[in-house]
Design brief:
about 280 residues; Rossmann fold; alpha/beta; about 40% helix
Length: about 280
């Protein structure tokens, strides 16, 4: 039998190495790195009127396309962020309106805003901040991105009154390294006025937000909403804390004896016993 020249074996080995499927780089297997993975979790419970729903959607669309937010994106270490938009209400009533979206330029932001404004909207029942936080926290798992920071940005016009206690869900998210910021809507409009807390910002500060640099930006008038969202997104993308009084932002869990974090459940129970309640 004729022997093959040694050079033939070498050539065959080199060819095999070239043709073998190569492993993807580590960053491709783990996900694209971004400066922040941001969940925008927005209250659409029945206490939020159709006008307020429209104001919220337009406020987020205007903010995410603003020059201030885009400057914050470009100024990041990587110059890109990943954002998803969630609407939530009571226990089991959460929906992801816009999937995780990479934003690194004006075109990405404009497409996100257009999808948000075009999506159908509807109010849902009750108010479960706890389920909104748990649902949002799960969205970071295997989402295709690796953020230097993971942030849940939750807005709402009342305290938790459905699902498990909000503190439990908050603490689980914080244990996973997620930062929670809050946008309490301290407006009185429509049916939801009966459930208002006059100091909802303090409730959010003591019971909802947490993590390094966590903060609360209250909205006391709908005229303030778009500006508040824009400011909040800039701070979250840049990883900054606003120079606000300590009473409305927390860098860590508050000391025991602060706000009654079960106040929403108590208000609901009293309403039920008195023959009231909300659908």
């Amino acid at each position: 039998m004729q022997k093959r020249p040694f050079a033939t074996f070498v050539l065959a080995a080199l060819l095999a190495l070239v043709l073998l499927p190569r492993s993807a780089p580590a960053w491709e297997m783990e996900g694209m790195e971004v400066d922040v993975e941001l969940v925008l979790a927005v209250d659409v419970s029945l206490s939020v009127t159709p006008r307020e729903l429209d104001i919220q959607r337009r406020g987020y669309a205007e903010a995410i396309t603003s020059p201030e937010v885009m400057s914050a994106v470009r100024a990041g270490l990587l110059g890109r962020v990943a954002v998803t938009y969630v609407e939530w209400a009571g226990h089991g009533a959460q929906r992801r309106l816009i999937d995780w979206t990479l934003i690194e330029g004006e075109g990405d932001a404009a497409a996100f805003a257009d999808s948000l404004l075009a999506a159908p909207g509807a109010s849902l029942r009750r108010t479960s901040i706890s389920n909104a936080l748990s649902f949002s926290a799960r969205l970071f798992e295997d989402n295709g991105f690796v953020g230097l920071r993971q942030v849940i940005d939750v807005s709402g016009d009342g305290p938790n009154n459905s699902g498990r206690p909000v503190v439990q869900a908050r603490d689980e998210a914080l244990a996973a390294g997620i930062v929670i910021n809050g946008l309490p809507l301290m407006t009185s409009e429509g049916y939801g006025g009966r459930w208002d807390l006059p100091d909802l910002d303090l409730y959010y500060a003591d019971c909802v937000v947490g993590g390094p640099g966590a903060f609360v930006i209250p909205v006391r008038s709908w005229d303030e909403f778009a500006g508040a969202v824009r400011r909040k997104l800039v701070l979250e993308i840049a990883g900054l804390t606003p120079p606000r009084p300590a009473r409305i932002w927390r860098a860590s869990n508050p000391a025991p004896g602060g706000y009654d974090c079960m106040i929403g459940e108590k208000i609901w129970d009293r309403a039920i016993w008195n023959g009231g309640g909300t659908p």
